[in-house]
Amino acid sequence: MKLLHIDSSVLGLHSVSRQVSAAIADRLAKANPGLKTTYRDLTATPLAHLSGSHLAVAQGAAPDAALQPDLAAGSAVLEEFLAADIVVIGAPMYNFTIPSQLKAWIDRILVAGKTFKYGDKGAEGLAGSKRVIVAISRGGFYGADMPTAAGEHLETYLRWVFGFIGVTNLEFIAADGIMMGPELREKAVASALQAATDLHAA
């Protein structure tokens, strides 16, 4: 069994999403002897954002030599995702949505013919066999009953993205309100870490 662990926070050791994603990966590793883990830090080794040149190559154009290393990097992250049985993602909310470096990664794994395809009935996801667990951290509170709910484009976006490629075994562990004061931050982190510890391992 293979685990792909992705982090996207720019905060390093101060990151809540990194702390929680690490706890999730540790829980799964301890519960599944022999689990092979691949770790990718999207901040330490960022992917380039898609450009017109990338899309031209996708449509069959010959790649420019300068683009070759980036195309190889994109192929590598796609293969990592395809090979994984479980994907753990650390995803903080930045300005109401995902970090741009995580978006760059998503753009490399949402590939027609690989993770989804189009047919007579529209798009069909091809990655439905995977389990995806996302550790999210948010500075405030964005529940459905909150006046801020309309500004939540982190969890809602990721639910749509992974649903689009067929993932139905999708879980979120959230640390909310981490910028609302020390007490709320401590409580949110403790709750998220406990949820990671209690995570169903299989």
TrEMBL record:
Does the keyword NAD belong to this entry?
A: yes
Q: Does the keyword Oxidoreductase apply?
A: yes
In this chain, FMN is annotated as bound at S9, S15, V16, S17, M93, Y94, N95, F96, S137, R138, G139, G140
EC no.?
1.6.5.-, 1.7.1.17
Q: How is the cofactor bound?
A: Binds 1 FMN per subunit.
InterPro entries with a match to the protein in the record: Flavodoxin_fold, Flavoprotein-like_sf, FMN-dep_NADH:Q_OxRdtase_AzoR1, NADH:quinone_OxRdtase_FMN_depd
The record's keywords, sorted A to Z, are: Flavoprotein, FMN, NAD, Oxidoreductase
Query: Which GO MF term does the entry hold, naming one?
Result: FMN binding
Which cofactor does the UniProt annotation name?
FMN
Q: At the top level of its lineage, which domain of life is listed? A: Bacteria
State the family it belongs to: Belongs to the azoreductase type 1 family.
Q: How does it assemble?
A: Homodimer.
The record's PANTHER family line, in alphabetical order, gives: FMN-DEPENDENT NADH-AZOREDUCTASE 1, FMN-DEPENDENT NADH:QUINONE OXIDOREDUCTASE
Which named protein is this?
FMN dependent NADH:quinone oxidoreductase
Which organism was this protein described from? Tardiphaga robiniae
